[in-house]
Amino acid sequence: MPETFSARLARHCGLGLLILIACFALLGPALIGIDPATQSLGDSLLPPGASHWLGTDVYGRSVLARIAHAAQLSLGLALLAALSAALPGVLTGVTASWCGGRIERGLVMLADACMAVPGLLLVLLFAAIAPGQYWALYIGLALSLWVEYFRVTRAASRPILHGDAVQASRLLGFGKLYVLRRHVLPALTPLLATLLPLSAAQAVLALAALGFIGVGLQPPTPELGVMMIEFFPFYSEAPWLIAAPVTLLILLVLGMMLLAGDKELT
Amino acid sequence: MSSTQTSAWRGLLLRRAIQVLALLLIIGSVCFLMVRALPGDMAMRIAASRYGYDFVGSAAASAVAQELQLQRPLWQAWLEWLGQLLRLDLGQSLVSGEAVWHEMAHHLAASLDLAVTTLILAMLIGLPLGVAAAVRPGGVADRIALLFAVVLRATPAFLLGILLMLLLAVHWGMLPAAHDDQGGTLWLPALTLALGLAAGLARISRSAVREALASPACEFARSKGLSDFQALLRHALPLAALPVLAYLGVHLVLLVEGTVVVESLFAWPGVGHALVHAVFARDVPVIQGAALSMGLLFILFNLLLDALMLAIDPRQRKPGASDA
Amino acid sequence: MTQPEPDGLRRRLLQGAGLGALALACPPLRAQPAVKPLLIVSSWEISGLAPAASGYIFTRLQVTETLLDAQDDGTPKAALAASWKVSPDGLEWHFELRPGARFHDASPVTAQAVARSLNLARTPPGVLSMAPIRSIEATGEKQLRIRLSSPYMPLLSLLAHSSTMILAPASFEASGTVREIVGSGPYRISKLEAPHQVETRVSEHYDGPRPAIAEVRYMAAGRAETRSLMAESGQADLAYNLDPASITRLRQRGSVNIASVTVPRTVVINLNAAFSGLKDLRVRQALSLAIDRPGIARALLRDPELAASQLMPPTLAGWHDASLPPLQRDPVALKQLMREGGWTLGTEGWRDTQGQLLRLKLQTFPDRPELPVIAGALQAQWREAGFAVSVSIGNSGDIPLAHRDGSLQLALAARNYAIVPDPTATLAQDFGPQGGDWGATNWSSPVAVDALQRLVRGGLDKAQLAAQRKRLLQTLHDELPLIPVCWYRQNVAVSKRLEGVSLDPLERSFRLTGMRWKA
């Protein structure tokens, strides 16, 4: 189906937005050049102005500098968590639909069991094993996210594996790897491309949610989810504070949704 | 027909029963390992939760350890727990000393209230929006649905909750701000949760309805002279219901466990709140109880959904196609 | 006939409009009663019925009473005990109970019942475990005797603590665990839903004047933002433990009154005086000199008066010593002290004579939301002064644990010095020869121990009392076994419909009996 002009425009906008966010995360800290940990209690809660574009937090630290550093750390770690959930999820998903039979049933059962165990419990336990360590939180998150990848991959790869193209390839004597590379991966890539950033955003929000119940805070490292918690008490006095990390996350999600267009997964 | 149907039902029930067993085993083992693996002194944690930070100390911790026999070998405690579980006894909270069954019943009732209300609210908001967006792609409803989805995907629940509280409780004075056992305190937390779910529902029902509208059945219906609206109502919506139900199956988990933030913000006495506090306190029986009730609730919801899907879609009754 | 209030009417209209389906899923809205109960919201959850666990909630709600009460300055006041006297050697105390006192189940408050409650309260962490008690027994219908093995002056103060609250015999199981709360106060419990909620109403068996507020509901809500909005929307009548940002908002909006009182709680840095650099008094002093207390008080607590110039706040009469030189920031003196101690300042921080970098870890916990925030400020201020300190936020129990196993380095805590009305008891626990879980670690001073012993033994006249307190506080001030950071103020949002509200600086009571609705 040919793409309409407006759909293409939306995709380009989305891509542009994502590139902008990536640039901000990668180059922002160097360009802004303010130490995100330098406090100045006398400049607490300044509104946005010439010297601090996004104002200052309760410690008088520059919010812009902190957001830039946080974008780098959070988006990086969140993507990492999403990737480490995706890898086992995709592998088991493809295996299940490839092998079928007993193996598939076993894997589905495993996924069902994992879904029934509260993900929250897993994350809290990992947080308790290594208090204050971000990696522990992300492993916990990855463990609770992989099932989604399993389900999607399994559902998406089944029609392909049982489709005519794959049957033909097999009849022609091509090996498993070839089938994976030529048929399965290309079909999965767009799905994963949309699912990955969405679970990254989910990971950031999950970290904020954990911070809200008092888990995973580690001052003074700037992190988007933790910043939301830090800024939350000032929602009425200095609303621009909490708006900053939330806006960044909104832009990220918007970029992904525009890029994904109609094919998106929810 | 009826025999394939019963076998499909049997498969469904069997699968969920296995899930329940797996759940019991996993939660049991996780809790067992947890006691062993977690850093920090268990007696001290329990004392801190019981007596608060002003009174927690070595004397309090050793009194707790003695009272709860925490020095016992782990296998002994483990066997005792298994025995209790076989007798359907979840034991007593290490912090409050109350029976876990009793505590859980209280929390579960509150959680269920919240989950059901949220579900209904989310469907009331999300489905019409999604259908409207699908009927006129690129129209106003479509744009609103997209904006709604984007903003809610990126807004933490506590921010959404406090904004609703400000607007509906403080500014308009329509609803009470937080839980207090008076009527009406359910609406705000339910709405906070429902908005997030509604956004997802709107997106998924939009694409489901669009796909259904483009399906041969609908094309045929239109060619047979039905109006667009009639075709939508008679053919597209039933077809679109399946992916929507599948989506709910995955995301209902949000209702069971994603509520911790909302529960804590609105002081709602739900299971999530109990679980979090129990993990902080190393209150193993309550962790087990809370995790079990959350898992069972989740499985129950899914069982209901499976049954619904089975009832709607005859294709599902074929063996081997029970999940997608 | 009860008329629904306009508020309730609107709520019902809203519910009727299009949300009918929901009504099936939810409990129906009840019509508002003519007079709604007074709603108190605070952060304290009811973690169990044991007096040592959540007893303070029941004493604050005036459901239970203790043998003694305290005036605002901590002096003992009659409660269930109408009078008391001590033998000349200080080893035997006699109490005479209030004759008309009755429990909520109508049974009289007897000396046997009191002795039973008190004996059960002697296990840790009940405060009675601090006292050298030999026996507690009834010597008559209304007469009680407590025998000590050595004189212990703060006993009266311990008997005013919530863990020693007196419960009716019907409250206990045979094993001694508490089954329900049957107290003797002006209010009785009508509904208890742990951990979030208690409802009380006036007790028919109370022998004092009948309170004006007939029904009270207590709720625990974990977030300060929630509590403040509950007060602002008129749902809650009293909202305790508000955070600085919420108070700023409530002051601006003006829809509720704010009452506040300084409480004898101090945010302190506990430290291990045996840990590497912290052995050196100069390092401890330097750590203290690096702290910008007024900055923390102004920016983080929004209350400049809360900067702690010494351990005890000025409101704690008899314990605050205005003649002590105030603790303050002084970067120049800091550097000089460190250099005198043989430390050299490199780019990473201070190094000792062997070139070893001084690295410290500060532990704290999030139960009091201001603590992690203050820890963040301390970390930055220390970094500026050349101290490399990492912050770890964990459970409150980790701090006594680290104290016990010696792994403690620095810990930020909020210590309540009036856990019982007389600070002597808490100080004796914190600064005894062995140190204390929340006090000194590997530090003790003969002067402090001696002063504490004299204060505990009692029998001092006014001048001697002041002199011993001064000796103790002077030593703590000079040797810094812990570093005071800031004091604490209890802020409460009070509905404008309420009159007669007063706050208890010792946080023993909500003082409900003095309140009434505005006409």
TrEMBL record, chain A:
<feature type="transmembrane region" description="Helical">
    <location>
        <begin position="238"/>
        <end position="260"/>
    </location>
</feature>
<dbReference type="Pfam" id="PF00528">
    <property type="entry name" value="BPD_transp_1"/>
</dbReference>
<dbReference type="InterPro" id="IPR050366">
    <property type="entry name" value="BP-dependent_transpt_permease"/>
</dbReference>
<feature type="domain" description="ABC transmembrane type-1">
    <location>
        <begin position="71"/>
        <end position="260"/>
    </location>
</feature>
<feature type="transmembrane region" description="Helical">
    <location>
        <begin position="106"/>
        <end position="129"/>
    </location>
</feature>
<keyword id="KW-1133">Transmembrane helix</keyword>
<keyword id="KW-0472">Membrane</keyword>
<feature type="transmembrane region" description="Helical">
    <location>
        <begin position="191"/>
        <end position="218"/>
    </location>
</feature>
<protein>
    <submittedName>
        <fullName>ABC transporter permease</fullName>
    </submittedName>
</protein>
<keyword id="KW-1003">Cell membrane</keyword>
<keyword id="KW-0813">Transport</keyword>
<feature type="transmembrane region" description="Helical">
    <location>
        <begin position="135"/>
        <end position="152"/>
    </location>
</feature>
<dbReference type="InterPro" id="IPR035906">
    <property type="entry name" value="MetI-like_sf"/>
</dbReference>
<feature type="transmembrane region" description="Helical">
    <location>
        <begin position="73"/>
        <end position="94"/>
    </location>
</feature>
<comment type="similarity">
    <text>Belongs to the binding-protein-dependent transport system permease family.</text>
</comment>
TrEMBL record, chain B:
<feature type="transmembrane region" description="Helical">
    <location>
        <begin position="12"/>
        <end position="35"/>
    </location>
</feature>
<dbReference type="Pfam" id="PF00528">
    <property type="entry name" value="BPD_transp_1"/>
</dbReference>
<keyword id="KW-0472">Membrane</keyword>
<keyword id="KW-1133">Transmembrane helix</keyword>
<protein>
    <submittedName>
        <fullName>ABC transporter permease</fullName>
    </submittedName>
</protein>
<keyword id="KW-0813">Transport</keyword>
<keyword id="KW-0812">Transmembrane</keyword>
<feature type="transmembrane region" description="Helical">
    <location>
        <begin position="232"/>
        <end position="256"/>
    </location>
</feature>
<feature type="domain" description="ABC transmembrane type-1">
    <location>
        <begin position="108"/>
        <end position="309"/>
    </location>
</feature>
<feature type="transmembrane region" description="Helical">
    <location>
        <begin position="114"/>
        <end position="135"/>
    </location>
</feature>
<feature type="transmembrane region" description="Helical">
    <location>
        <begin position="290"/>
        <end position="312"/>
    </location>
</feature>
<feature type="transmembrane region" description="Helical">
    <location>
        <begin position="186"/>
        <end position="204"/>
    </location>
</feature>
<keyword id="KW-1003">Cell membrane</keyword>
<feature type="transmembrane region" description="Helical">
    <location>
        <begin position="147"/>
        <end position="174"/>
    </location>
</feature>
<dbReference type="InterPro" id="IPR035906">
    <property type="entry name" value="MetI-like_sf"/>
</dbReference>
TrEMBL record, chain C:
<protein>
    <submittedName>
        <fullName>ABC transporter substrate-binding protein</fullName>
    </submittedName>
</protein>
<dbReference type="InterPro" id="IPR000914">
    <property type="entry name" value="SBP_5_dom"/>
</dbReference>
<dbReference type="InterPro" id="IPR030678">
    <property type="entry name" value="Peptide/Ni-bd"/>
</dbReference>
<dbReference type="InterPro" id="IPR006311">
    <property type="entry name" value="TAT_signal"/>
</dbReference>
<feature type="domain" description="Solute-binding protein family 5">
    <location>
        <begin position="76"/>
        <end position="435"/>
    </location>
</feature>
<dbReference type="Pfam" id="PF00496">
    <property type="entry name" value="SBP_bac_5"/>
</dbReference>
<dbReference type="InterPro" id="IPR039424">
    <property type="entry name" value="SBP_5"/>
</dbReference>
